[in-house]
């Protein structure tokens, strides 16, 4: 589906127009507009404090908006909150499982909040534990599970009501690389089943892996929108050469390098040089006898897009 197609309101499962949330004079979300299509994996990318979690809470109907329009599955979550939440799955930023209950019981108890019968919940819990690769941990108390297992159980819990939309707020924060990849695989499987995913993250590799389309947020505003590949193509070069001359020399070396690349960014620990041919650029750096302490060439990422748009790193 084209990006234009994603914006058609008659296919949107989420529609936001000039959505705003103020706390006094502070605008946590500052007039943003976007649409999410059925079955899409849609991302909100930005650093901590960008307004991502606030936006998610308004979508979930747990936070009142200050102004603007918001529709989830054609309903206003403020006035039709119970109906909206019945069709949503929510994976919060921090796991809030019942540590004293067993893994399987966490799913069953949570399902009872939706009024679901035990005749449905017992087999559903087993199905979700298998999906989350936790069948062998069904009778283990949550406080004995690893961080990655808890995260998968939290996602399984969010699926107990068979939601049409799954909201995931920073789903892999605090997980090691192996646990992150296992979680990504589970989310890919959900997407293949037609579940709409809305993901907030400040990890650019996660956004590139999971999202069909995303918005880049900063200071409560949307500063760019598109697929990961289209954003990289629009706002960055094909490759990036990273060079380090030492923290005391980096800034002083910029004038020596400026004519080699169309764009240069100076970070505290390294210099980023943007070019279509990163290896050729590095060869020229060495031919000039500049000899960085370390150097590497990589492809451009969403981190470079964010740096271009905001002048700061996602991890600032």
Automatic annotation (TrEMBL):
Molecular functions per Gene Ontology: ATP binding; ATP hydrolysis activity
Q: What is this protein called?
A: ATP-binding cassette domain-containing protein
- Domain (ABC transporter) spans 14-244
Tell me how this protein sits in the membrane: Peripheral membrane protein
GO BP of this protein? response to antibiotic
Q: What is the native source organism of this protein?
A: Propioniciclava tarda
Similarity comment text for this entry = Belongs to the ABC transporter superfamily.
Q: What is its main location?
A: membrane
Q: Name one GO cellular component term.
A: plasma membrane
């Amino acid at each position: 589906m084209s990006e234009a197609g994603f914006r058609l309101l008659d296919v949107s499962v989420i529609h936001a127009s000039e959505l705003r949330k103020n706390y006094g004079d502070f605008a946590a979300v500052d007039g943003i507009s976007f649409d999410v299509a059925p079955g899409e994996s849609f991302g909100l990318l930005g650093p901590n404090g960008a307004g991502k979690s606030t936006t998610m809470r308004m979508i979930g109907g747990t936070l009142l908006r200050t102004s603007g329009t918001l529709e989830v599955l054609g309903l206003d979550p403020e006035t039709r909150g119970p109906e909206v939440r019945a069709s949503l799955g929510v994976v919060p930023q921090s796991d809030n499982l019942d540590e004293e209950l067993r893994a399987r019981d966490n799913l069953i108890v949570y399902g009872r909040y939706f009024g679901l019968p035990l005749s449905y919940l017992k087999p559903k819990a087993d199905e979700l534990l298998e999906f989350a690769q936790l069948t062998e941990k069904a009778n283990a108390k949550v406080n004995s599970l690893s961080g990655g297992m808890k995260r998968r159980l939290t996602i399984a819990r969010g699926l107990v009501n068979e939601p049409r939309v799954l909201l995931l707020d920073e789903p892999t924060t605090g997980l090691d690389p192996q646990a992150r990849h296992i979680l990504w695989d589970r989310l890919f499987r959900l997407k293949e089943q037609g579940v709409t995913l809305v993901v907030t993250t400040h990890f650019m590799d996660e956004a590139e892996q999971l999202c069909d389309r995303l918005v880049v947020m900063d200071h409560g505003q949307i500063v760019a929108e598109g697929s990961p590949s289209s954003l990289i193509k629009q706002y960055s070069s094909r490759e990036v050469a990273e060079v380090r001359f030492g923290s005391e020399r980096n800034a002083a070396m910029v004038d020596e390098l400026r004519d080699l690349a169309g764009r240069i960014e100076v970070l505290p620990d390294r210099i980023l040089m943007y070019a279509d041919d990163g290896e050729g650029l590095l060869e020229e750096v060495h031919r000039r006898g500049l000899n960085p302490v370390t150097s590497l060439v990589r492809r451009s990422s969403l981190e470079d897009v964010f740096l271009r748009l905001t002048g700061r790193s996602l991890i600032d």
